Amino acid sequence: MNQLILFSLLFSLLLIPNLAAQPITKATPVWSIFVAGILYLFAVLIMAIALRREYKRIRFLDKHPEAEQKAEEPKMFGGEWTVQILVVTPLLLASVLHLSFVLRLPDQVSTKGAYACELVFVSALLWLFVFAVAFAGASPETYMALHGLVKDATEIKKANGIKKAKAIWDLICRWIRILINGVGFLVLVNAAVSALAGTLLLVGVRGVFSMDGNRFGLLGALEITVAFGPPLLFSVPLFTLVVGAGLVGRDFHDWLREWLARVRAWALLFCIGWGVFFGIALLGPYLAEWNATEYLRLTKTVKWAAVISWILTTAGSVLAGNSNKTGSKVGEPASRSVRLDILARVGPPVFVLGLLVLLSFAVKCAVGYVVSPHSWAMLILLSVAVKFGLGYVVSQHSGAMLILLAVLLAVVPLAIFLLFGWRVDVNEFSMNPFYRNRLTRCYLGASNRKRAPNPLTGFDDRDTRRMQISRLRSVPLPDSHPTTATSQPMDIYTGPFPIICATINLSFGEDLAWQERKAASFAFTPLYSGYHVGWTTGKHKHHVSFNGFVPTFHYAVPEGGINIATAVAISGAAASPNWGSHTNPATAFLMTVFNVRLGWWIFNPRRSQLAGATLAEVPKKVAWLSVGPTTWLSPRFAPLELAKELLGMADDTSKYVYLSDGGHFDNMGLYELVRRRCYRIVICDSEQDEDYFFEGIANAIRKCRVDFGVEITLDELDCLRPDPLTGNCKRHWARGKIRYPETPADQPGQESNEGKILYIKSSLTGAAKYEDIELPSEPADVVNFKFTHKHFPHDTTANQWFTESQFESYRRLGYHVIDEIQRSGQWEQFC
């Protein structure tokens, strides 16, 4: 279902260039150049207003340094949205219409006269562009300030006689100098020279358009022009602006240069986006149907070779990504395959490009079939038109028929996209329910004594009944929590307090220092669930709470909150398009298209009305709808979240946040324990680390120091590294200390101030000796399994099919490690 949504969306998007190509090449020249001029003037006007407002704001802050800038000012007129929507977009549309004028000019009017009029018209617009930017950006005022021409006129009033006449003469000379140099030469003349330079560039661009593509053997010359023509024409005003800024020179403010540089950057991104989008949609089909007769055999060979290479590269990248010989660790040894690593990185972009090319070919085939005289769409429309007496209006080759066919072709995939996007649940139609149900059957089902599974599926819904995380607490819920007619009395839970860790993906977080992480910790507990980040404190203040924790009983799911099976499946969602610091847009695209999605979209707790509320503060008669009338279990319109997964654009301010494996942020579970100021922590490290880099524990220690100011030290960590000759470690564990910020500096050794940590590493030691205690070797079957399986005990989690001997070897090794810790007296020293 999710693939149907994605492919209908991509089909609709790739259909846009095919439908827009005809109007661009068939538009009336006079109309197109007139509208282009209006759009150009509108963009120039917006730029002038924005620059003048910015100049006045800076002048005000200079005169009143004690004044504080309002928090809303980053969103004011003149920001990025203003530039993108009101400046760059109109200029790009003006370039498209200008291209339409250029393409239609020889067929409609006298070429020479129209060509001259076009150059004059464009030169005038370019001159106005540079003039407006320089004048609105206060270049004359800057010239006056740099040359000492700003003087107080009160001296004229105070002077008498000859001194007054001299002062008046000086004032007149200053104004003449300002008008001639500051306005005339600096603004008007420089604008004219810049416009001339831009016009010369336009002549060159038009020369490129005048080339006969067919003469050079270019297939799709018109498509090439539509794809790359607007960016080329867009380069004319941008080049003119660069020349103008250079000629004005030092009389341009630094803030004005930065502002214009940002405008040019956004313009460049828009041009690249246009070229890539229209290039793939219009030129992609030619990669699949090269029909040049003189090169027919060669082109067919190249075409099929490209298709086979695309398939093999995609499949190889998926397999390489699951291989333990690929990775992204710094300083990896030579045992890792460089070729497989390159294949894993190159494969996703190759797949994305190939998929878009195939879809563009499908779009072109669909367009060609629909507009053919014998297509079913053409025949149906003709029969309907004849039946209603409109046959004389709608014929096979009329413009009305082509418009109707274009609308029909666009509406069908768009309707599929909207219908399935509205009805299909983005969570339930992922791999997470598949994974969750099997975890439930394996663990919760094993503890259900009254289990009666379905004879076909082997599942029993009662395995998860009344297994909400909020029930796993040692005291009953207070009376402030609601009790509905269907709810049952709460049992007293006597087990350990569970903290189920997940990762909230923040590929587009606000804190630049977290660009490496791209994630934060998200925790489910019986009391509260949520996360905390500090950088969006002052943003979205009407929608997002600073405190991201909510009472678990009222979070995400009515009648007690989220189920433990769902939370555990989220916590183990390793295969995910967005996976913390490893998130890559190309890989995210590949995994989303194939629906390799174990993650979960969940309501953002910072959007909840109960965000930051304590258990006692929850209203006595709170109902599910009163907690948030728009709080749904899953996103109501799946394509919005699918698009974020597709492009790797998850953040922490949207209505729904994306959760994945807790190991994508902290693979040890240490972070949340330190957040809660635990003074006795046991870490069991069984991650894939056959090279013993200790990346997981090092990553957790680093984040605890950065975020909480907690210093964690581990003693004798070298004892956990294997001997190069025997491959055995000296022991399985290392002890350490936890020093919290509130620990007094003059009392570091007191039990009440300093915590302890016991770090246990998956390893083999053989017969060992700790102090005076003789420790036995691992059982013979475990040692034998190590000899025959070199990756043991560091198998990748991608291996989900353990054999009986493999499972028993891991189980027995774990028992041996804990028994050895007990024999050496570590528990007594630790506690």
Provide an overview of this structure.
The chain contains 23 helices and twelve strands. The strands form three sheets. Strands 4-3-2-1-6-5 form a six-stranded antiparallel sheet. It has helices at about 1-25, 30-65, 80-110, 110-135, 140-145, 155-160, 160-210, 220-250, 255-290, 295-320, 340-370, 375-385, 400-425, 430-445, 565-570, 585-595, 625, 640-645, 670-675, 695-710, 780-790, 805-825, 825-830, and strands at about 500-505, 520-525, 530, 550, 600-605, 655-660, 680-685, 710-715, 735-740, 755-760, 770, 775. The model is unreliable at about 70-75, about 215-220, about 330-335, about 480-485, about 535-540 and about 625-630 (pLDDT under 50). With about 850 residues, it is an alpha+beta fold. β11 (about 770) and β12 (about 775) form a beta hairpin.
